[in-house]
Amino acid sequence: MSPIFEGMFQVVKDDHPQELIMVENANTLDQFLRFLDPRMKTLPLAFETIAPLLEAGRKYQIPKILEWWEEQVVIKSDGVPADKSSLQKPMACLALASRFELPNTARQALRDLIKAPSKELMTDIRFESHLFCRLVQLREERIAWFTNKLTAYHNAVNGDCRGCHAAHDQLGRALRAVVVDIASQTVFNSWQKEISELESTLPTL
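User: That's the sequence. What structure does it adopt?
Assistant: Structure tokens below.
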């Protein structure tokens, strides 16, 4: 049992029970108590209500609630280890992982977010601005890295003809080749190590 609950349920010397006061709302308490009663099933993960549940888990020292959430947010794929998998709603995961001091999930969320579409950088959950600034910095570094790589690739293919109109057409073809041409997969393979190094440069939370 939670050491917090143990203290709350202790009786005083005159055998009169202590009054038990919990400020959590009914929905949070229902979800919370399901982790304590083995006869009850836990409810599916819902990001709309997860923050109060995680707060209750921390407050009453029930670590398995936080552990359950970290496991549930991972998108499981065959052959992909959990620490390399993507997360559901990575921006919300980053905010919650930062708030509840869960560095592994925070790092996974950052790896997803530095390459995610801009529309995914939205969440109603508040978190520290310096972490968001760090995320923006990582995204800018990634864009600059790819820009430099594609420019170098174009220059190697087209020499010094960047100033002519034909160069733009050639660059377009080169970019399309890099994206869709099977033969260009070797280009991406040669960059993969550097991509991994860039994405692994993440803040320690």
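Residues 129-158 form the longest helix (30 residues).
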